[in-house]
């Protein structure tokens, strides 16, 4: 038997025994703290007594087989749901290392990569819903979910119903054909904290799958799977990659059955993720803990500053004691990330754009989660989708800030100046 053949069969054997044995040993120990697992999960095994710290970037389209028997064995394992690559689209070592690290972070059975956060969401919706099914979606979710509904799910006979996670009684909305409960906590734009354990318990009682978008916490400060969700989704574009240079999505599932379902849909959609992007995301993940800690410190300082500012009507940041979601956040989360929104006291619709244009250190842009600070006006039509916003009196403009890793005093100084520029401009135009 040639050396190549031995390796191919050895590899097939290792993969048959699941992910945990495919790479290094350190992350096999579930008792290790998350900081330790972030550093070690998915590390490459040493070969012949030595090897690099980082997993190599393994790019390929074709996967070569030692012989037809090895090919048949690997195809069989893949068909049975094992994490085996028989073609480039399936992703090789780099992809697998990232999958293992995210699965460890999220506390899941398996992670699947997707080319973007939104494609990860679409993958979950298409894998779990079929014509005639009904899905319940919290009305405060990342807005493009509604586009997936309108442009895709409706055409395929799936009915999506939006509900208010704080006002509606979930139990009364569940129908015999309800298959999926889709949540995001804290929500996009206003960071409404949901009672995920209670919602998930109700859904599970009725045999309804629960999916949660966990992008806000980076998977570090919130564990939707431990709190009752079956699927946890992240736009890895944000905190996991963390440097504003990658588009990536991840889906982590709690069972082999869901892994198989997601895998089948993934293959049918012909999805594929580049090895370089998988590498960059894994590199970002290694420093997730230290980056998020600084995002949190800085964001809390900014949120407290905003809360004390006379031109601000309301600050949305669950780590602030006065935030309506604070008690739930304290119960279910172990930290807060860098997103802070605030509503202006002045109802002039020009307030947000004047304010944002006056900022120096905050770039104007979406897709937060990198090291840099960003500012964006929350579009009124998107805010109007959220029941928590509809209840509020008046409709001042809202600015969403992503607080980066700059020194917080420089950021607060920048905000202070922008407030005074805005006040002067609004007074002159009044
Ligand atoms: C950005 C974002 C997404 C989409 O991620 P992309 O990688 O930009 O496609 C999904 N969910 C949430 C909460 C997001 O903020």
TrEMBL record:
Q: Name one GO biological process term.
A: transsulfuration
| Record field: catalytic activity | L,L-cystathionine + H2O = L-homocysteine + pyruvate + NH4(+)
Q: What are the required cofactors?
A: pyridoxal 5'-phosphate
Region feature Disordered, mapped onto this chain: 1-33
Q: Which UniProt keywords apply?
A: Lyase, Pyridoxal phosphate
Q: According to the UniProt entry, which residues carry N6-(pyridoxal phosphate)lysine? A: 238
- Biased-composition ranges, Low complexity, are 7-23
Enzyme Commission number: 4.4.1.13
Stated family: Belongs to the trans-sulfuration enzymes family.
Instruction: Return the protein name.
Output: Cystathionine beta-lyase
This chain's source organism reads: Achromobacter kerstersii
């Amino acid at each position: 038997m040639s050396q190549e053949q031995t390796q191919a069969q050895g590899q097939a054997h290792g993969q048959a025994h699941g992910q945990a044995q495919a790479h290094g040993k350190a992350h096999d120990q579930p008792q290790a703290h998350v900081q330790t697992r972030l550093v070690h999960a998915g590390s490459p095994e040493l070969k012949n007594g030595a090897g690099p710290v980082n997993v190599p970037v393994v790019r390929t389209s074709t996967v070569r087989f030692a012989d037809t028997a090895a090919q048949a064995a690997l195809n069989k394992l893949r068909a049975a749901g094992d994490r085996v690559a028989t073609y480039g689209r399936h992703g090789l070592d780099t992809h697998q290392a990232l999958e293992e690290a995210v699965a460890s972070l999220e506390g899941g059975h398996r992670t699947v990569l997707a080319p973007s956060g939104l494609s990860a969401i679409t993958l979950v919706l298409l894998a779990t819903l079929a014509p005639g099914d009904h899905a319940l979606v919290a009305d405060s979710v990342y807005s493009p979910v509604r586009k997936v509904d309108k442009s895709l799910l409706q055409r395929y006979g799936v009915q999506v119903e939006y509900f208010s996670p704080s006002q509606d009684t979930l139990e009364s909305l569940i129908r015999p054909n309800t298959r999926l409960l889709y949540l995001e906590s804290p929500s996009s734009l206003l960071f409404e904290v949901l009672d995920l354990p209670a919602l998930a318990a109700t859904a599970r009682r009725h045999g309804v799958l629960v999916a949660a978008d966990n992008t806000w916490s980076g998977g570090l400060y919130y564990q939707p799977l431990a709190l009752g969700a079956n699927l946890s989704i992240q736009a890895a574009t944000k905190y996991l990659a963390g440097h504003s240079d990658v588009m990536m999505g991840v889906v982590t599932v709690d069972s082999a059955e869901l892994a198989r379902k997601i895998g089948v849909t993934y293959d049918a959609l012909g999805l594929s993720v580049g090895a370089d992007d998988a590498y960059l995301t894994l590199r970002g993940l290694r420093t997730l803990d230290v980056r998020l800690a600084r995002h949190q410190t800085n964001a809390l300082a900014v949120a407290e500053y905003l809360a004390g500012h006379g031109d601000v009507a309301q600050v949305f940041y669950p780590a602030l004691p006065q935030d309506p979601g604070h008690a739930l956040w304290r119960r279910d989360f172990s930290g807060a990330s860098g997103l802070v929104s605030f509503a202006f006291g002045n109802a002039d619709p020009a307030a947000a754009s004047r304010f944002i244009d006056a900022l120096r250190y905050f770039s104007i842009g979406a897709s937060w989660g990198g090291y840099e600070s960003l500012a964006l006006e929350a579009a009124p039509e998107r805010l109007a989708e959220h029941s928590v916003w509809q209840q509020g009196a008046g409709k001042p403009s809202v600015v969403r800030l992503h607080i980066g890793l700059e020194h917080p005093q420089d950021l607060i100084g920048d905000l202070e100046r922008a407030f005074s520029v805005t006040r002067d401009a609004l007074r002159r135009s009044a």
